[in-house]
Amino acid sequence: MGRAVTPGSGVEAELAKHTGVEIHGNSIRIVFMWKRRRCRETLGLPVTKANIKHAAQLRAAVLHAIKTGTFDYAQHFPESRQAGNYSTNRDERLHLLLARYKPLKAVDITEETERRYGLALDICIELLGKDRLASVLMPEDIQNLRVTLITTRTTSTVNHYLAVLAGFLGWCEANGYCRPGLANACTRFEMTDRDPDPFTKAELAELLNKGCLHPMDRAAVTLAVYTGLRPGELGALAREDIDLAKGQIHVNRAITSKGTFKLPKTGKRRTVLLFPPALEACRELLAIDHGIEPQTIDVKLNRHEAKQETVTPLMSPVVQARKKHVNPWFIPSSWNSKWANIQRRAKTRPRPPYQTRHTYACWCLVARGNLAFIAKQMGHKDFTMLVQVYAKWMDDESPNELQHIWSGMQSTS
Question: What InterPro entries does UniProt report for this protein, alphabetically (predicted)?
């Protein structure tokens, strides 16, 4: 209990001005709430008006640190016997925890994924307050972060950030650095379904005849549309991957934005059977002499293993480059630039390069291709993705499906 102050001393009037400051024995102490517990700290200062004002300022600084999540009991009161009760070795600042988490997470992901995760985490921790203690984070803080992120970023980007942050907070929870349930507060935003936007046959003709200025470009666009290869897989194709006799392409690798090589998206190589236009495109690409010697490259199998291959680019920026030093392979950014120019010259509605993959899928489905076959050609694990993404082309474009199935039933014994 605080000691009564002698009336008329002026100290009583000063003390009445400040909440949470009281007299204890012959000294001043401050009272505040920390982690839902009432804390009292005697300052060892004699009872004077000046010291009461000083104690009030100290308490205000403590409350501010608590509110901003930067309060460290032992740092503010190093000689307090209570510091051990209120501060534990689990009280860690977010930026220090993040520095420990990143290398632990990195061993399970690729270098490119590590870069993307690191960027997302850095942004989230900066917005939450990198000097805050993880133990004081509340679900409300995560909810406020969601509001901040969605005001300046696309929904898909924000959802990526929140997914990565949830992983970090889950690690913090498992190790006792923060309260349970924070990871669950990283609720992703609902996204409206974006239908594929395939090219029509007329648009493809415009792209090939007006947009492409070089035979390599025409062959590359044709190959993209009639194989459904991802842009990174298209850029990483090698002459050695083409089997004209069997009419197929071996998709053995993909190239990243950094110019490094990895396995295709599903982590598995695949063989794509070629439609006649794609087969002819391969012949044209093989006939172009770009003068590039076989390249010895490392293809990342996972974070810790790589396989060396000696292969020759099937298509290369060198063919049309004006600069002397050019990457012999098309990385996604260089193909994006070329693709944008092709569309501009063709005067077709601008769409990202990935729409050539969607075009392949939609054209196959409209032609009533076998779902399992199409999924295998495109490198999906199964045809679930086809059903989810391309249902419009399966339903709307097949109004006579019932009659088609019934006719098939009648022909079987």
Answer: DNA_brk_join_enz, Integrase-like_cat_sf, Integrase_catalytic, Min27-like_integrase_DNA_bind, Tyrosine_recombinase_XerCD
**Which residue has 């920026």 as its token pair?**
317
As a whole number of angstroms, the distance between CA 229 and CA 377 comes to 9
- Give me 275's structure tokens: 């439609």
In whole angstroms, give the CA distance from residue 166 to residue 384: 26
pLDDT of residue 8: 47
Of 325, 354, 383, the last residue of a domain is 354
Full DSSP string of 54-98? HHHHHHHHHHHHHHHT---HHHH-TT-TTHHHH--TT--BHHHHH
**Rounded distance between C-alpha atoms, residue 29 and residue 56, angstroms:** 10
As a whole number, the mean pLDDT across the chain is: 87
Q: Which domain holds residue 266?
A: 202-354
What span, in angstroms and rounded, lies between the C-alpha atoms of 84 and 90?
12
Please state at what angle helix 111-128 crosses helix 139-150, rounded to 10 degrees: 110
135-163 pLDDT, tens digit per residue, is 889 899 999 999 999 999 999 899 999 99
Q: b/e map of 279-313 (b: 16 or more CB within 10 Å)?
A: bebbeebeeeebeeeeeebebbeeeeeeeebebbb
Cα distance between the two ends of the chain:
96
Angle at which helix 215-227 crosses helix 355-366, to 10 degrees, equals 50
Lowest mean pLDDT among 19-23, 69-73, 90-94: 69-73
Beta-bridge mates of residue 31: 40
Give the DSSP H/E element, type plus range, for residue 179.
none
Boundary-marking domain end, from 140, 157, 185: 185
Locate the DSSP E strands across 214-287: 242-243, 248-251, 254-255, 261-262, 270-273
What distance in Å separates the CA atoms of residue 401 and residue 413, rounded to the nearest whole number? 20
Phi, psi of 308 (to 5 degrees): -85, 135
Q: Is residue 369 part of a domain?
A: no
Helix axes 155-174, 139-150, angle to 10 degrees: 160
Residues 349, 221 share a domain: yes
Q: Encoding tokens for residue 324?
A: 């002397």
What pLDDT digit, counting tens, does each position of 237-262 carry?
999 999 999 999 999 999 998 899 99
* CATH classification of the domain holding 308: 1.10.443
